[in-house]
Amino acid sequence: MTRFSLLFLAVAATPAFAEDGLTFGSSTRIRYETIEGQPRTGFNANDDLLSLRTILSGEYREGDLRIGAELYDSRVYGGDAGTPISTNEVNALELVQAYIGFEKKDAFGRGTKLGLQAGRFTLNLGSRRLVAADDYRNTTNGYTGLRADIGLRHDIGVTLIYTLPQVRLPDNRPDLVDNKVRFDRESFDVVLWGGLASKKFGAKRTAVELSYFHLGERDSGRLATRDRSLDTFGARLFRDPAPGRADFEAEAFIQTGSISASASPAAPRLDLSAWFTHLEAGYTFRHAWSPHVSLEFDYASGDGRGGKFGRFDTLFGMRRSDLAPAGLYNAVGRANVMAPGLRVEFTPSKRFDAFAAYRPLWLASRFDSFSTTGARDASGRSGRFAGHQFEARLRYWLIPKTLRLEWNALVLAKGRFLRDAPNVTARGTTLYNSLNATISF
To answer: What is the 3-state secondary structure (H, E, C) of the chain?
Structure first.
């Protein structure tokens, strides 16, 4: 019997021991998505894909100790040679989490606490723009290592990590298309460490965060990399939404270090200097639907001309909440983009929520590829305007806490750059739709 079979049987059996402090959860999400006028280069202009993601999780608690595991099974069906299928979509039967944790109240005096975790685990830190466990994407990010959470008096919190990010496998297209099972790999060839400190103010709606993360990678016998050595310094000030109140968020990252010009072992090293900022101001109206309106602005630097590399690297951050869906679209992320925006959110009931957003999109540098599309005009003659992006999402609990339906829709009216860049695949308007059903137990 394989390690995966043993794990499945162990996790599936946990409900029988619930009275001993064991909890169990599972969910299955089915997604059908379509796209017309694909903005990413090198793929089908029109495409569709069926995705299936199943998660089984269990955790045992006894006093200050906890032991947990989580199994992801992410697969896709229906793609062809031109469909963008990668480890973002496929990671079959993977033990993403297998950890032991310890939690101690009053560890440093009354009102303090200490949490320690070791093993394989997921991470959602701060705004999740640098370190996250992506949920919209069909696969997630896993990390192996150590985590410490320290809660001090006066609403001060500190989180420290030293991890080896899991490299999802398989990573070759034939095995991905076949949904082959291969255990993910972690090694000291890719290391992420750092942390953040936060302080809450007043009624605890307002907080400030300071963060630092270092990513170091090097070539191995199995994988050639760009040998990134990145230091990312961040500061964030925010106020959470509340009925009849204004809210805001301002976050900025400065990134320095070095990177190889390509994955070739002989590629020259380049100094790196990049930055990113997110600004947001919103208001929640006193209404039964809790409408929330916000103005947003995102800027991520791109690579220019010269000896320095200027493209911002979002490390392991998620993109869905700020910019756009992943999946077949996956065209707008935190790299070489300037995007103001308007977002409207509302929650008519506990079972139904929705939002709509509009963003005009520009390239931060007209010499670099636009965001994550791969579209590029090294001469800069195609300009900087990429287009107008409109998106919306509707979610409804058909059976509360058991079955949720979700529809995502996006229209990208392409601007001059995405029509004129030399390597664009499709010049027409992009239409993206995804239909999701998630069953939870």
So the answer is: CCHHHHHHHHHHCHHHHHHHCEEEEEEEEEEEEEEECCCCCCCCCEEEEEEEEEEEEEEEEECCEEEEEEEEEEEEECCCCCCCCCCCCCEEEEEEEEEEEEEEECECECCCEEEEEEEEECCCCCCCCCECCCCCCCCCCCEEEEEEEEEECCCEEEEEEEEEECECCCCCHHHHHCCCCCCCECCCCEEEEEEEEEEEECCCCEEEEEEEEEEEECCCCCCCCCCCEEEEEEEEEEECCCCCCEEEEEEEEEEEEEEECCCCCCCCEEEEEEEEEEEEEEEECCCCCCCEEEEEEEEECCCCCCCEECCCCCCECCCCCCCCCCCCCCCCCCCCEEEEEEEEEEEEECCEEEEEEEEEEECCCCCCCCCCCCCCCCCCCCCCEEEEEEEEEEEEEEECCCEEEEEEEEEEEECHHHHHCCCCCCCCCEEEEEEEEEEEC
